[in-house]
What we know:
Largest sheet of chain A: 6 strands, mixed
Strand content of chain B: over 45%
Oligomer: heterodimer
Number of helices of chain B: 0
Number of strands of chain A: 11
Structural class of chain A: mainly beta
Order of helices and strands of chain B: EEEEEEEEEEE
Structural class of chain B: mainly beta
Amino acid sequence: SQQGEEDPQALSIQEGENATMNCSYKTSINNLQWYRQNSGRGLVHLILIRSNEREKHSGRLRVTLDTSKKSSSLLITASRAADTASYFCATDRIGNTPLVFGKGTRLSVIA
Amino acid sequence: DTEVTQTPKHLVMGMTNKKSLKCEQHMGHRAMYWYKQKAKKPPELMFVYSYEKLSINESVPSRFSPECPNSSLLNLHLHALQPEDSALYLCASSQEPGQHTEAFFGQGTRLTVV
């Protein structure tokens, strides 16, 4: 069963705006990762945040993690049309299990 | 080389056919994975190989048979598939099993069963 649940399921914004996606999960985790997938293609790793971290930045990406609420958010600032893709959070549970993906958010950035 | 290469990119097969999907990585990763992804759904784990040995089988039907001939290669043998098996099959690898680093994905094989 899916570990993570993203919301919203779909998001449409104008170029230049910020996009925020949320992920909730159910069990204790080692880390949480965000991946991006262009239509029908492979997934690309964006960022990993460990369970003892609260915030992480990478370029225009900002990820937060709240382990007390079992939730994470991905913020993409100053979005571009090229950011149009599906974004998935993925977690691995304590006990060295492989990645389990959430349902994903489909982001459309309109030029 | 940070690529995971999957072949073929597209495959159409009949329900009585036998075919194989191939995956290759040269990053020295010791964990390799097969995922299945239906349209507008997240990837679902099928198999995990750890140091060339099958470590996880997520109750996948026996018509899917994985094989890891060496540390760089991962195959998925297909036989007697059903139309509902049509999906994007993704191969991934990561550095060490259980070390929770990023996974590298191939571009997938788009499989259609007719």
